[in-house]
Batch of 2 targets.
Target 1
Amino acid sequence: MYKLMIIEDDIKLSLIVREYLEKYNYAVHEITDFKNIEEQFERINPDLVILDINLPYYDGFYLCRVIRKKSNAPIIIVSARNGEMDQVMGIELGADDYITKPFKLEILLSKVKAALRRSYGEYSIKASNELRINKLTLDESSFKMSYNESSVELSKNEYKLVKKFIENKDKIITREELLEVIWDDSSFVDDNSLTVNVTRIKNKFVEIGIQDVVKTKRGVGYLFNSAAIEGEEHD
């Protein structure tokens, strides 16, 4: 049974969400002591977190960053703040998804199921070996990307996207294909979330010394330009 943690100061809404999710055989823990959320997170060690932004004492963005440093458990932000920058910030800080209030419980359930499948179920990453293009290495066991003597850590979503790029090097990949890599149901996803993740990937390639490896194909998607990797051989 998966353990879910709800961090929501609207007591009525928190109760409604808990009772609804419990019907689907989840063990749901509601936070009521908002001064000691970190301690409760460590004690419960949840498999997934449903997180509001406007909270007493600490806002959700701060908690998202703190939780992500401690755990790879999926974080779904549920907030009345529906601005584009709020959604971008949530993803940047490590959230896996962002739902704006008001929302349908069925939508939340579908996102919870999808996030759990990606992290622990049939779509989860099986750490076993490395992907390599000449001097570029993607380590499945540590989510590290290395090039020459430099390395950088990737988030789970970043890892999945880089893996998709490497497996389809020098081919155009549509935005829809990439959305499906990190979100099972792309119809519920703000397209801007993909842009944010790809931008972060580009920056991390630059950080390890690789320039212009991910090319934007306007109106279509992206292309992984393997020629940008020093020493890459072509047939």
Target 2
Amino acid sequence: MIHNSLFIIPMQIAGIQKLTLVDFPGTVAATIFTRGCSFRCGFCHNPELVLPEKFNPLLSESQIFDFLESRYGKINGICITGGEPLFQPDCDKFISHIKALGFKVKLDTNGSFPERLEKIIKDGDVDYLAMDIKNSLVKYSQTVNPKSHSSLSLRVHPSESKSEIRNPKKLDVISSHSEPATGRIEEGEKSQHSENKLIKNIKQSIKLIMSSNIDYEFRTTVCHPLHEVADFKEMGEMINGAKRYFIQNYKQTKQVDENSIYKSFSDKELLEVKKIMAGFVGDVDIR
């Protein structure tokens, strides 16, 4: 089936995992991976979705929706992750179209676009929300190393329309089909204003999710030296009263910052973190 373009700025889709039993709690689903992110977390294991110089070719909109229509009766939901899905200006339209096809939708976000998140919540097209809590507020900026997202390219190279639907396990194949966009900000240019804006956005997104009446979870990937057990008291206070929180231990693999060394938490530290977070959140587990 041929689909006309639904979006003013085409969604940047880098891959599809055709079946997942773990990404969308209680739902047999497929996972769609968007390309581009407002953060540069050094430990992120998806550099090909985050770093412009490592971007892979895109999938066309027709490929995405043809694939989804072929999965009727086989899957019940779609998990949209990244990168950062809300980095895409037309993510709300994309979600609405998936919902109109009859699928439940789970959205993963880093919380950096509260206005877009608020619109999607108000549209009523999302069934589950998952937000990463990167660190305590005093360490947030140094953890996510935010870069300017406004100058990152959202253009699709004509050759990318020929991409094949593929499992994201193959996304580590590097392509130069699209022009890499830099959008880098030198360390000295980071102002107090931008850091304050980041914290405001994170707080606003947490509040939106917790008051949304939509099922949700918060989660943190933990690693040294970015995190210490003591950080989690403040993190618990950030999401005090939340429904669900998962601790995800860092695993060494490919990562955005190839020059930094990160280390996993010990089992003892993970249990200490769980105990701290259980004082603030209803359901806490180590994933």
